[in-house]
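pyridoxal kinase
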Amino acid sequence: MALKKVLTIAGSDTSAGAGMQADLKTFQELDTYGMVALAAIVTMDKETWSHDVTPIPFDVFNKQLETAISIGPDAVKTGMLGTEEVIKRAGEAFEESGAKYFVVDPVMVCKGEDEVLNPGNTDAMIKYLLPKATVTTPNLFEAGQLSGLGTLKSIDDMKKAAKIIYDQGAQNVVIKGGKALDQEKSYDLYYDG
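Predicted structure tokens:
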């Protein structure tokens, strides 16, 4: 059986704990062939622990996508995309690729932060990515942004957000709650209508 091919359209995390580096490690563990279209580079100030996100020039980003699409991915996953133009292109690339699955991880903040990197990206994700998503995997903050509910404070809030995101077009919604609601337990929520 031929190796399945997965394209991640994501940012680069220099620490390799997230972004395309983490995606490629996961793909390897799952015996799939990983490809990357790099959308942004994330660096961190070692003194303040604040993040800096530098988008890849769009023409370079687009050439990466064209190359990966020509290889024929079976699935496409998004991560940090950075700009509305890149978000729109990522949705188009999924359709052009002929891939069966589209995983949308709507990265809006760097880990440990709670300010949206680019507020216009939320609307772009709702318009260009969610209607095509086989599954979307927002964390609590991202689910609050996508649903328009703001801060999610309970499992009931998670359920409301999941339904709204599902109604925006995602076939399956997995809200990653982690320990944000309860320091003793971790809550994730799956919704498929």
